[in-house]
Description:
The structure is a homodimer.
Chain A: H1 8-18, H2 34-52, H3 56-62, E1 65-67, E2 70-72, H4 77-86, H5 105-118, H6 120-139, H7 142-154, E3 157-162, E4 178-181, E5 187-197, E6 206-214, E7 225-231, E8 233-235, E9 241-244, E10 247-252, E11 263-276, H8 282-318, H9 342-373, H10 378-409, H11 421-429, H12 438-449, H13 456-472, H14 476-504, H15 508-512, H16 515-543, H17 549-566, H18 569-577, H19 582-585
Helix pairs in contact in A: 1-2, 1-9, 2-5, 5-6, 5-8, 5-9, 6-7, 6-8, 8-9, 8-10, 8-11, 9-10, 9-16, 9-17, 10-11, 10-12, 10-13, 10-16, 12-16, 13-14, 14-16, 14-17, 14-18, 16-17, 16-18
Catalytic activity (chains A, B): 3-(methylsulfanyl)propanoyl-CoA + oxidized [electron-transfer flavoprotein] + H(+) = 3-(methylsulfanyl)acryloyl-CoA + reduced [electron-transfer flavoprotein]
Domain Acetyl-CoA dehydrogenase-like C-terminal (chains A, B): 463-588
GO molecular function, one term (chains A, B): oxidoreductase activity, acting on the CH-CH group of donors
Amino acid sequence: MPTYTPPARDLDFVLHDLLKVGSLDIPGYDELDRDTTRAILDESGKLAAGVLAPLNQAGDAVGCTFENGVVRTPPGFADAYARMREGGWMGLDADPEYGGQGMPYLMNCATGEMFLSANMAFNTYQGLTHAAYSTIHAHGTDAQKTTWLPNMISGQWSGTMNLTEPQCGTDLGLIRTRAEPAGDGSYRITGQKIWISAGEHDLTENIVHLVLARIPGAPEGTRGLSLFIVPKFLLDDDGRPGPRNAVSCGGVEHKMGFHGNATCVINHDGATGYLLGEENAGMRAMFTMMNEARIGVGLQGVAQAAVAYENAAAFARDRLQGRALAGAAAPERPADPIIVHPDVRRNLMDQKAFVEGGRAFLLWGASLIDRAHRGRDADAEGLVSLLTPVIKGFLTDKGFETTVLAQQTFGGAGFVRETGVEQFVRDARITMIYEGTNGVQALDLVGRKLGAGGGKYIMAYFELIKTWCREAAGDPDFDAAFVEPLKTASKQLQQAGMYFMQQGATAPENALAGSYDFLHMMGHVSVGFMWAQMAQAARAALAAGEGDRAFYEAKVATGRYYMARQLPMVATHLARIETGAEPVMALDAESF
Amino acid sequence: MPTYTPPARDLDFVLHDLLKVGSLDIPGYDELDRDTTRAILDESGKLAAGVLAPLNQAGDAVGCTFENGVVRTPPGFADAYARMREGGWMGLDADPEYGGQGMPYLMNCATGEMFLSANMAFNTYQGLTHAAYSTIHAHGTDAQKTTWLPNMISGQWSGTMNLTEPQCGTDLGLIRTRAEPAGDGSYRITGQKIWISAGEHDLTENIVHLVLARIPGAPEGTRGLSLFIVPKFLLDDDGRPGPRNAVSCGGVEHKMGFHGNATCVINHDGATGYLLGEENAGMRAMFTMMNEARIGVGLQGVAQAAVAYENAAAFARDRLQGRALAGAAAPERPADPIIVHPDVRRNLMDQKAFVEGGRAFLLWGASLIDRAHRGRDADAEGLVSLLTPVIKGFLTDKGFETTVLAQQTFGGAGFVRETGVEQFVRDARITMIYEGTNGVQALDLVGRKLGAGGGKYIMAYFELIKTWCREAAGDPDFDAAFVEPLKTASKQLQQAGMYFMQQGATAPENALAGSYDFLHMMGHVSVGFMWAQMAQAARAALAAGEGDRAFYEAKVATGRYYMARQLPMVATHLARIETGAEPVMALDAESF
């Protein structure tokens, strides 16, 4: 059975040494001193490691069952859910006006990483609730907020997003689900939704579905979509769950992984729904929560990588095979632990450098969300909108890749279910697909985000890196290992952006054919930027003679590794991009 | 349910347009005219698509069951096995003296790709039998060969390789299984073997285990290992299976994939075994079959990629989402097929370029095996020994990666089990691990194969490419697209090799820290070499006005794609290698 050790020290480092959250000018951040955040991280870490992690493997083996319209979650999930509820974790960053704790979104991500590492399938029930909460909070009337939010924040009720239908996933303009006015202000919703995560289960007394549907006479395509609140149980006059609504689960999917989360067919058969926001403005309402939801999926990628890496490192220290090149490292034992072998190291360093760098990138993004929302900062909003597809796409691609590397560390033991590492691979795989496939993220990045605000956000991003490089430079060793590689990679990213701009008007296919490579370039530059700053912070701590030297030295060494061995990928992506669309589009569809 | 269409036309192209097998000076190749190979490919393709493929998904869902020491294979496997036997496919390249058909190994690989694409788990029962056959054929006495081979070739009996034990996988020197002389020339074998593929099943009337064990008093480490024939049933005086031997199955593993193949714990409790080859020469005997076995695993990587790609391409032509950038491609339908989108194309082109290029590389390797063995050509033996870790490591890494890309083409439909594409991912994953993990392949390549024969085989490899480049050059368009990129990549590979040579004596860790990158560099250069030659052949056919223009044009376009968008990876790998071991080895084991 895999282990899980909450990375409290690493999270602490990112929050305070890298982001310096206590001194950031963001409402609510003044409360985030080291002791406070540590207490929150310790408490949530205990729950993650002690309660959620032990349920993960059985949750995968048993999965969710479906019988006579009823979905049962795996053994232990209901009790663990009650524990999460009692701890108030579900409303950690929710609006205090409706019973939330009002903490920054950043802390939701820091604690969320641990919950997700411990048990991703379990944690997604509340993740979906959070997404639904945010949407109602942003677009609901006061009455709707009072009706629905308190019980969602407390975890008594859960939430879902009902978007996909059999004929449409990415292309929501094809949605057919109908919403007929009932004459009393409500609507009758009819249609089938599929792949609805947490769509039906036995964890809460009600489920609040948010459903995209089309009102008769609405324009075609996405401009004719409206969003509706469709509860599993209609509320009685006291606001308590009453009669069953005409919404039901038609079955659960059998999937590669993520078995503990019920992925449901949801049938709406004239179900009662309440319009959320304006008519035909459903897509706009969806977009509100999309940045957060996508960052949340990026977090899942980091979290699966983190727990897989922890187990791979432990295995590599424990498993005895062969001898170190320079002579036996453990002469008293029949063989040396495999961590002595350079290629095993290479594998572990790739994992470690991604996990720690990806975590930093994610939390930087989360702090920008807080700056945008709590600080009402439009520039931060623009910057995080630009970064969101990178956070989602890059961190889930690399997160999955890292679980595969961790599995490889285990050799044959990684392929058998017993060790649990193969589950991380299967669970991580969904993160590259849902909440917009990573190809869609790349399209969003290059097709919409790069040019947003006349390109001012991407310019601000480059300016940020340039300014940092200028200010950080001075020490030859640090410059060679960190500043120069970051400068080079950043310039290559700019060059790719220029190429797209030049092509944009006349040959837009040249931009889109390179979109995936651009997303990965920007991911590497961003994580490289994090590593450069983390190394700077660690060097400063070392120079000041602070605390745990080995910890800071490892940060610098891991950062050097990332810059030396991962950042060169940026050049390859640029070379690919500059070949344009011709090689990509040369064949007829029939030639595939 | 996934489809499978045998790639007969593509195999035909590789055999005759690329390798020109009919004119190669290798014994037996003179029979390989286009009509003969086509008849063989058509016949085996029919069996693969019609009999094996329909059993693949159920084989995964049901898997192998273990009860009271008995292993049952999935429904339909036994009947299909009988069909394979009747068709004589198991002895296709086996020695006619013992009932084989005596075809080249090349044809075993060409037909094997189809069997493996259709049903990898099923086909591995006979794959292991083939490995055991080869070992007995190379090292057995005449009496042993007469006793064991005919029934293995006919498929009446199967074979296994018993190497791994709980405390040792890669490091076979730690093997503890004992072989005590029984006094009658036989031995009593005692010990536990694990992860034995096809170790126990209900497909054949006997199972011939080849077991690595240690005779009392033997030297420590691998130099004290001997190889034994240990049948499940001892033979009676007529050579028919008689009393049960003291070898039994202790259980089957629960795995990520590859469920249709029984991965067994095999307990030897004083089982009767017969020495195969010399005492303490067990490792040498194992090495004999290792090239073939590793090439066979590389083939599994290509085969899983091929069938996954076929299904992804079909899905992309069928699934309607969004509109083409230049305007609707299918205005009469609600949306365009997703194959119009540049990023979907990028994904499919990566798949296609790998599948066709990887297939060519594999079959080139197989033809070198024939040249080495049938032609008794030591230079070919040296070259294919050098290429073997690349064929195994690169083709399985990229094969797995390609199944993941194919799954991504499917979006959400790729994560549900119904479409079958996620099974290819889970099945392909084992190929990176067994028969020596890919890290061990890289170690073999850099630590042993590069320097073999004083470096003459790697020099011959470079010379081959250089000569081809010189002779192929002349047409500016072809040079720019193929010759120059291949030259550049080959020079970068040489530069990496030089770096290793310079470091070898003083700082061998610098070589081993870059071994994995070197393996991938060499994989790309080799597949690039194949594409350059395939494009040359296709251009020649086009110039001659031969046959199907669209087919040849697609070959040239796909080759251009590989050279433009995959080959640039070689530079990144070189950059990594030249950072040396320092970043890789910087941390203490405790810092992970």
